[in-house]
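Regression report. Comparing outputs from two consecutive submissions.

Submission 1:
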Amino acid sequence: MKPFTRTLAAMALAVGLASGAQAQDRLSFKAIGQPLATGLIQKNKEQPFFEQFAAKTGLPIDVDYKPIDTLGIKDTEQLRVMKAGLFDFVSLRVSQNSRDEPMLLGLDLVGASPDYATGAKVSKAWFDTVDQRLQQQFQVKLLAVWPFGPQILFCKKPISKLADIKGMKVRVYDQNLAKFIELVGGTPVPVAFADTHQSLSLGVVDCAVTGPSSANSAGWPEVTTHQLPLGFQMALNGYAITLKAWNRLKPDQQAKMSAAFDTLSKDIWAYSEELFQDALNCNAGKDPCTTGKKFKLTQVAVSPADLELVRGAVSKTSLPVWAEVCDKSNPGCSQKWTAAVGPVLGLK
């Protein structure tokens, strides 16, 4: 073999070995996403982030991302699926998984986050406690928390105030909200988001609670007539990773990943707030409407009395109800919440 040929062969071998080493260093993770049916945050923020994960994070990681409603997995089973090691990342639906871990719901008690600014403070105050609990119980690390936005009321019967739901069946998604609806005089009915449109259409429920953008994406205004833009909860969700996957990363890689999820969550907080007002306009057939389809819902004015009713729910209903459940599975849970979150809300 001539010297030049030997040099080329050596270079080719070196490149091949280097490529092999790079391939070995590259990681492949699987992710559970939000349901497709939830709309624009999933479509425009979450899915692109995971599908471009290496570019977004600067990490040699490829992610196989699947929305949960394409997997045949219930959104109430996310923590169990993660603990079993079937996925590495999860876009965690907080309320839906609070039966398996009640501490989660401390992020989003009814009345605790009537607006985005308060919601951000509450989630920051409770974040570390939830993270520690998830690591301990499910071997899952919390990376970020973000909101769909204020969850409001949609009805297929005329309403002019919150008290008008008395005697009506209302779709809810967690026990905290269910207790509040009972307090107001409604009958709470647990219905999965994907089934709510049909439930409204068939009269299984008279009203339902979700964010205005998600309602628009799912076509709820086709089967309702009124929207009351009074925020019960912020519909907080989280991003989490199994400790097994997390521990495969070097410390500098962990720092990069944390920073990337922090950036993503801040982006979603801002985007969610933009969507909220625009979707209210779209649902009511008003301009500007740039993110959804125009409908003709009657927008009910929020009265000071209704606003006070929701804000007062924390001390009167949502905290006592949740505390009983959380303290039963984790003694001292509500005391920790009061110490951490109470000062944010002015509670003693």
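Submission 2:
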Amino acid sequence: MRKTRNSNIELLRIISMLFITLHHFSLWAQGGRSDYLIAHNHLWSAFWSLFYLPLGDIGVYIFVMISGFYLGIKNISIKQSVKKTLKVYAEVYFYSILFLILALNWQSPVKTNKLWQSVMPITFNQYWFVSGYVVLMLLVPFINQAVNKLTKRQFAYLLTVLVVICGIFPLINNTIASQTVGLGILITAYLFGTFIAKFIHRNNWNYLIGLSLFVVNTIIIYIIMYYQIILTKDRFTNIYTGIFALLSAWGLFLIFINLKPVFHVIFNQVARHMFAVYLITQNIFVLKQLWSNFHFKQIHDLTKLNLYGLGTVLLIMLGCYLIDIVRSAIFKLISLIAKKSENP
């Protein structure tokens, strides 16, 4: 019988991308509003206008944990690692070149730095997350071998060390091991997913632990974020990254992994295209133009604003999903043609 992925985890992948895109709604579509509110000392309103901001890092960590959950317990060869990396790179390159071509037709001239970022998106770090994720995938064979024989206690010790140096140190501006959004924290999230796959079994106790971790750490994030806005008069707070977001993500992962395994073809189908949501919405030629359409300046009720934002993000994700279906069909066609040319 063909093994199918647990749809609970695939639904969590969709939720992780929803969190990331909601974060970008607050950051890019509502950044100007929050700056205005802060400048006029309407700090509570500024906080609500940035309501989705902390969700981004939780979403990123969940997305990487899922990779660790699926890949961390496998014996991945260097060849398999390179193949997976090239598959990711092909998708990145497709959208990078697609939007470069559209930009060359719609706006002229294209700035040199954007040209290089489009032609070599990983080398010139067009997407920080993609660059980090590609490096992580190349390291996976060695990471997996390094942790394969660890006992649960040894693994827990490793995670504790990584949480301190990659999850706490960056919050006090110590970036010796990682920035708040850097390779170190992605490796840490990957190993959290691996730890769950190796040692966590489905039971009510683990579900309650996950619920507590998610609720408590998310509340802490929002409380500290609010007081940082008050103290710094700045929307670019960093407390929602690091250990609190990591533990919140781990808690949410524990909740979903302890649900009864199910299979829903729709969830699994949609989840396969979620990476494209990030690649499209964060493309250097799309980002500002996209979010400039969703400032919602005419809306002053911030609760309504955030509801509009949620609806907007869901529609954007649907649009990206449909676009990526076309991209996937093109890749399958190219693969089919290549196979036929090899075997005439």
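Expected: both submissions complete independently.
Actual: both completed, but the second showed a warning that disappeared on reload.
Relevant detail on submission 2: The mean pLDDT is 92.
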